[in-house]
Amino acid sequence: MNSDLQTMGWVAAALVTAMVVSLIATPVVKNLAFKVGAVDVPKDNRRMHDHPIPRMGGLAIFFGFILSALLYVEMTPQFRGMLLGGVIIVVLGIFDDIYALGAKFKLVIQIVAALVAVLSGNVIQIISNPNVLSPNPWWDLGWLSYPATVLWIVAITNAVNLIDGLDGLACGVSTISALTMLVISLAVADAPVAVVMAALAGACIGFLPYNLNPAKIFMGDTGSTFLGFILAVMSIQGLFKFYTIISFAVPFLMLGLPIFDTCFAFIRRIAHGQSPMHPDRSHVHHRLIDMGFNQKQAVAVLYIISAILGLCAVVLTTSGELKAMMLLLALCAAGAVSARIFLSNNEKKKTEDKDHKEDQP
């Protein structure tokens, strides 16, 4: 019991420290962004804002996280490698927010940062076999563990970056993912991972008041790629090490929204004969806007979806596959009914407005 209370104390301290630092640092970073020219000017229809807004706000998230982590987390080789890789990602993000770097150059630097983390011991060595009918319960990746881990880290880093299209979306989804891993870590008594996730969640929570619609500052690539990088590396430390089906399914549930959006975007672009890195306006959040949702409603819908997936990940870890599947199906059914009601009401309102305009002389 004393050990549990001590862990909860460290978790609470890490979360509050990161939140306070991030909250205080954000206005400072906002002024700095204006001075160095890290400003997002709306120049195409992919952007949802209509006036210049400073970016590079992820620097405040980084300050909150790094200070809290250094205070409360034990410095293991794996953690040092993650921090060093994270610093590389943040420096890359700062330059990208100011100068808009090329996609290929950014990909190379992201691979370097991932290699730093991997060579420090953050490696996916064994994963559960997704084929439940197979006699082998898990796969030993062998030499493939290194390229597979690099691929995972770079993919999640960019997946979180790709959903950063609405005010508060990427920050809120990352917060939900971090809290999901925090709860799972507490459930399996993995205190170090829990404290790191508390620091990350706290840093995001401190930044959110400035980032929710209407946003006063964007996190930019500085924040979105950093959040994706930390979530990817910590999922290796906290989730992939289980020798059960959990080690395969839980990370994909916890990060389900950015993973789905990225895969769908790549398939869509390749099908249209475009480069997978070609930007477009067909992400999940764009489609919700086109369906009639405003920014706040679209973000709320995606928060709910992330929370549902996170809750299923927690249930899968603590109660087994059957209960998690039943919960996911029940929540999906409830979500489908709610969406149908909203869209019907929205269509009815549009029809009434149209009829009202036609009746006017």
Describe the structure.
With 361 residues, this protein is mainly alpha-helical. 73% of the residues lie in helices and 3% in strands. The chain has 13 helices and four strands. The strands form two sheets. It has a two-stranded antiparallel ribbon with strand order 1-2. Strands 3-4 form a two-stranded antiparallel ribbon. The longest helix has 39 residues, at 321-359. The protein is globular, with a radius of gyration of 21 Å. The protein starts with a helix and ends with a helix. One of its GO terms (cellular component) is plasma membrane. Mg(2+) binds at residues 161, 221. It is found in: Cell membrane. Its cofactor is Mg(2+).
Brief overview, please?
With 361 residues, this protein is an all-alpha fold. The protein has 13 helices and four strands.
